[in-house]
Amino acid sequence: MKESWDEKAEDWHIQVGDDGDRNRLYNSDPFLWEFLGDDIKGLNILDTGCGTGYLGR
C-alpha cells in the first residue's frame, strides 16, 4: 500500500513540479498562509493527505 502511494506522489510531483498546481498556488495556499500567520517557523506540522508533503517543508 505504501509503495502505491509513494508512486502516486512521485507521479504527482512530476506533473506539477516544485511550484505545485495552479489551484494550490492561487487558491488554497494564500488562504492557508494567511490563516496560519507569520509565527509558524520552528513548529512541528503534521502534513497528511497533501501530495508530496510540501506543507511540512
What would you note in describing this structure?
This protein is mainly α and 57 residues long. It has one domain. Helix content is 53%, strand content 0%. It is built from two helices and no strands.
Q: Return residue spans where pLDDT drops below 50 for at least 5 consecutive residues.
A: none
Count the beta strands. Answer: 0
Which H/E pattern describes the elements? HH
As a percent range, the share of helical residues equals: 40-55%
Task: Characterize the biggest β-sheet.
Answer: none
Strand percentage: under 5%
* Radius of gyration over all CA atoms, rounded: 13 Å
Structural class: mainly alpha
Number of domains: 1
CA(first)-CA(last) distance? 24 Å
> What is the average per-residue confidence, as pLDDT, rounded to a whole number?
82
Shape verdict: globular
The number of distinct helices, counting runs of at least 4 residues, comes to 2
